[in-house]
Amino acid sequence: MVAPAICCISATCGSPMMKHAWDNYKRYAWGLNELKPISKQGHSSNLFGNIQGATIVDALDTLYIMEMKEEFKEAKEWVEKNLDFNVNAEISVFEVNIRFVGGLLSAYYLSGEEIFRKKAVELGEKLLPAFNTPTGIPWALLNIKSGIGRNWPWASGGSSILAEFGTLHLEFIHLSHLSGNLLFAEKVMNIRKVLNRLDKPEGLYPNYLNPSSGQWGQHHVSIGGLGDSFYEYLLKAWLMSGKTDEEGRKMYYDAVQAIETHLIRKSSGGLTYIAEWKGGLLEHKMGHLTCFAGGMFALGADGAPNDKTGHHIELGAEIARTCHESYDRTSMKLGPEAFRFDGGVEAIATRQNEKYYILRPEVIETYMYMWRLTHDPKYRQWGWEAVEALEKYCRVDGGYSGIRDVYNNHQSHDDVQQSFFLSETLKYLYLLFSEDDLLPFEHWVFNTEAHPLPVLHKDDGNKEENQK
Ligand code: DMJ
């Protein structure tokens, strides 16, 4: 089946899906972090402490790109009048960075409005005390009033998390670029120094690192949750530097080599998947989060060493196919949180607590990269299947909701419209059906929350040209 009505989400007419998500957020949860679309009220998550307005800040660039001018204007006014970081709040450094700092930076680069630059830098400064640890590996959690940090109590031996401290680089390089304060860049470059001093088991990066001792915690390696965007940021740091950051490049391709050797496997039915590694043993499970890696491999293909460009594109295509299968093998045609390749199943969730779908973007993200890099029409077709499933099962009167069990047609909604649905899922869908010259990859890299940041060239001044 070919996407029948591309116009409905493409650049020509804005996105009715975005409009529905935004209008309902505005009606029922304006100024709060997220929307509960069934109970039609605000939803607060402890990731942002009492910083408010996550959906507004996360959605700014999507509104701008979709030319929803009125909505962008009201969002900007809210930021000017209400976005306040002078609060006594314990926040997740990673989540606040990718959604708030990333969202504000993109809004600034796209619109040129000074308020977004000012707020991004102000928030970046609030995050700096997180790096006050013996090694400079930041805490996961930070009270932005007192500057006191700590780690998640569940994290192995008091460790910081690879995907959290490894997903600050792009934003912090831009904060230095826009503020002239080199401290931001120094903090993230030091993270690399610590990592490069450490021995890595089989060349792999464990998900846990103790910020006091500088030693790895439990040897659990994952390209999904807890690890994912660390690898993404190595590649994108290199791309964002105008391909001058050789250290980032080397760390990325070395890591991919180890991942291929130790984690990537093929099922008996011919599906390529990325397993998890626990102290040398493989768990044949792949998370929805891991599906972003298809797009990452394809995006990195061009610079791959030893003539491996075609191989990395192929790897991206195989991961895209596996993740599409994980959607296609459910009754709702939406993918589960995790799927397995053991006990006689392939690309299917077997545990009840892995059957949910919370409006995540990673599979559509991979379709978007694969489309741009190959122009194989199947990626638009698969994206369209996802649009139809979202409309059928996730759309409710009050917005869009996640689903508790994608294998059960009697839908049970989780009653949360995640802010990343507006920043990522809907943006990647829109880009999938747009021309390649909208945010071209030569000029923009997307942070892990799909916020576009411009490529920085050596001769760039302090202010970027709007390159949209
Ligand atoms: C987003 O916040 C980001 O993509 C992050 O890197 C991983 N999880 C969510 C979406 O699933």
From TrEMBL:
Q: Which UniProt keywords apply?
A: Calcium, Disulfide bond, Glycosidase, Hydrolase, Membrane, Metal-binding, Signal-anchor, Transmembrane
The record's subcellular location field reads: Endomembrane system
**Protein residues bound to Ca(2+):** T448
Known pathway: Protein modification; protein glycosylation
List the disulfide bonds in this chain.
C291-C323
Q: What class of enzyme is it?
A: hydrolase
Question: Membrane topology for this entry?
Answer: Single-pass type II membrane protein
- Catalytically driven reaction(s): N(4)-(alpha-D-Man-(1->2)-alpha-D-Man-(1->2)-alpha-D-Man-(1->3)-[alpha-D-Man-(1->3)-[alpha-D-Man-(1->2)-alpha-D-Man-(1->6)]-alpha-D-Man-(1->6)]-beta-D-Man-(1->4)-beta-D-GlcNAc-(1->4)-beta-D-GlcNAc)-L-asparaginyl-[protein] (N-glucan mannose isomer 8A1,2,3B1,3) + 3 H2O = N(4)-(alpha-D-Man-(1->3)-[alpha-D-Man-(1->3)-[alpha-D-Man-(1->6)]-alpha-D-Man-(1->6)]-beta-D-Man-(1->4)-beta-D-GlcNAc-(1->4)-beta-D-GlcNAc)-L-asparaginyl-[protein] (N-glucan mannose isomer 5A1,2) + 3 beta-D-mannose; N(4)-(alpha-D-Man-(1->2)-alpha-D-Man-(1->2)-alpha-D-Man-(1->3)-[alpha-D-Man-(1->2)-alpha-D-Man-(1->3)-[alpha-D-Man-(1->2)-alpha-D-Man-(1->6)]-alpha-D-Man-(1->6)]-beta-D-Man-(1->4)-beta-D-GlcNAc-(1->4)-beta-D-GlcNAc)-L-asparaginyl-[protein] (N-glucan mannose isomer 9A1,2,3B1,2,3) + 4 H2O = N(4)-(alpha-D-Man-(1->3)-[alpha-D-Man-(1->3)-[alpha-D-Man-(1->6)]-alpha-D-Man-(1->6)]-beta-D-Man-(1->4)-beta-D-GlcNAc-(1->4)-beta-D-GlcNAc)-L-asparaginyl-[protein] (N-glucan mannose isomer 5A1,2) + 4 beta-D-mannose
Tell me which EC number(s) this protein carries. Answer: 3.2.1.-
**What's the superkingdom here?**
Eukaryota
Which biological process terms from the Gene Ontology are attached to this UniProt entry?
carbohydrate metabolic process
* GO cellular component assignments: endoplasmic reticulum; extracellular exosome; Golgi membrane
Q: Name one Pfam family in it.
A: Glyco_hydro_47
Cofactor(s) the protein needs: Ca(2+)
Q: What function is annotated for this protein?
A: Involved in the maturation of Asn-linked oligosaccharides. Progressively trim alpha-1,2-linked mannose residues from Man(9)GlcNAc(2) to produce Man(5)GlcNAc(2).
Record family assignment: Belongs to the glycosyl hydrolase 47 family.
Q: What is the protein's name according to its record?
A: alpha-1,2-Mannosidase
What taxonomic ancestry is recorded? Eukaryota, Metazoa, Chordata, Craniata, Vertebrata
